[in-house]
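Quick entry, no commentary yet.
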Amino acid sequence: MLAPILAPTLACALLGACSTVEDAPKGEAAYAAIPSAPAVGIDYRISPDDVLRIQIYHEPGLSLEDAQVTAAGMVRMPLIGDVSVAGLSAGEASDVIAGRFGDRYLVSPQVTVFVKRAVGRRITVDGEVREPGLFPLDGRLGLLQAVALAKGPTRLASLGQIVVVRQSDGQRKAAMFDLGAIRKGEAPDPEILPGDTIIVGLSRAKAILGGALLALPAVGAGFVALDGGL
């Protein structure tokens, strides 16, 4: 068995090149890594703890006004029991529920699912901020506003080392921004998306992310891919 210290080094040698969060793109490359997204067109995916309104046309007894998605991603419906909806859009969840009812109980059921409370639309702000935590994301949000949700950076925060971590194409990726330059209007304010993690301070980012080594060949244009999930 490889010694713990040698294992990452050998893995890097075999894969050709490695990087850490310190190698996250900066400056113009960071902005290319997280271009503005058409937030209005994002098809929201249902998450555990979301609250749904589920309406079955002409079947008020089967409809639910406040159906909470369980930690396992299920919603419990009358007659058909638990239905897995996590990871689905509202339209896809409607089709799945309609299919279950149509199999045994209803003829051509018409089902509408509406997300009343989208817990999955959250961001994490951590590191050198006054009140780190999870925050709801309503509408479009820039990095400056995201840090403000955590009551702003601490007095000794490293404003030139703001790491944004995003899950993309099955990989955890990162880019680094200069909050001081953004505040002065010298750099654009990048858009923050649901699920993003913002970490103020490179040293805190390294501690939180574990300083993981990763193979550069797996990195696409933009973010540096980080090993593992958040």
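second:
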Amino acid sequence: MNWLNSEAFTLFGQHIIWSDMTGNILGLITLALGWRRSLWTWPVQFLSGLVLFAAFYGHLTGSAGKQVVVMAVALYGWWQWRRTRNRSGDGQITPRFASWRERAAMIAAAGAGTVAVALLFQAYPSLSWDPWPDAYIFVGTIVAMYAQAKGMVEFWIAWLLVDLVGVPLNFANGYAFSGFVYVIYGALVLWGMRDWWLRSRKAARPTLEGAPA
């Protein structure tokens, strides 16, 4: 798998490696499929994690380990969507807003998780190149994927919060391709959030007996 860490092309003076390009492109496809509420969201997400795991394994054990967690959550998401997709009229999952209790739980988990992971990264410097931002992005990604698996509209907001740190951080560290991809992520997130929000309102609207569907 050494080819994954070889240079694909140069963009604005930045050397783009195959793993960075492939993983980010698969990430974009995952987000677009999530917007469409397609079950294929999760296999593509799993494949993205697998590509990055193969690229990192052997020399960046911390990054490889994080991809294992991402792949595990992708499997959970696939199971969850497959189990609930037939509850809507179009054969896909029905988006909904999280309850206040669910929101509080996710915020608490994100906060506590970020602190715990950052401290772990600080204790073992080989696991991360920048402990606190890296922990924030990693934990935020897991929370977003969990909310997506549950069909919560808030998962788009979680992705936006990850992007707010991910975009400047990638540019600052010389990962121009990843930075541009995160900008596209932001646009997809806004469109996807609008679509899920409208669908959640439609799903929540009561249908009067005898009224046309």
